[in-house]
Amino acid sequence: MTESWKRNVCHVTFVNFLVLCSLIVSAQTSAGKQSSVELRIRPSHVTKGVPDTISFVFVNIGDHELRIPPVSPCIGGRFSGTLRLRLEISPVPTTGKGGGCGGEGSHLLGILEQAKSWKRLKPGESLTVSYKRSELFVSEQAPGAYELWGEYQPPHVPAEDITALEHAGIDFPREPLSSTHLRFNRPE
What is the mean pLDDT of the chain? Predict the structure, then answer.
């Protein structure tokens, strides 16, 4: 074998190795990005064109059971996630943006004990949590175009607890979620 042929074989082998590695990383990245839960918001009790109550709806769009940890006010914890209602208004009043939180308290149990109380959602099932806008610290009443959306920040679960949950076969939302934006108009 010539030296040139050996270099070409090594080069082709190395390039194939790099392509294979990039495909593996790409597959892992896309698999990690695809969430099996979707966050939606649903308005109700519309007064003067703007909803007084907002429901946050977690929908299991995956093919396996998942659990939803409790939500907590503004600052999430180790075992609780955070729900926020975001708001943009135009024309911009004295404050043009807003946002707030709502939720339930968390417990100081171990992760596997805590996960027993998390809401179970089979594929296609949903969990709805509702709050008045005032409970979410979004009480703007100015006339204008309102754009509302919901956000969910998952709990801050340490790596060793995630491993314990995985070994127990418990899946939960690990990535932040955002709903679609809904638009309303409050007349003058």
Answer: 80
Split the chain (188 residues) into runs of 10 and give each run's mean pLDDT: 56 44 41 75 94 95 95 66 92 58 55 93 96 86 94 92 95 96 94
Q: What is the pTM of this model?
A: 0.74
CATH topology of domain 35-186: Immunoglobulin-like (2.60.40)
Domain range summary for the chain, segments of one domain joined by + = 1-34, 35-186
Give the integer Cα–Cα distance in Å for 72 and 67: 16
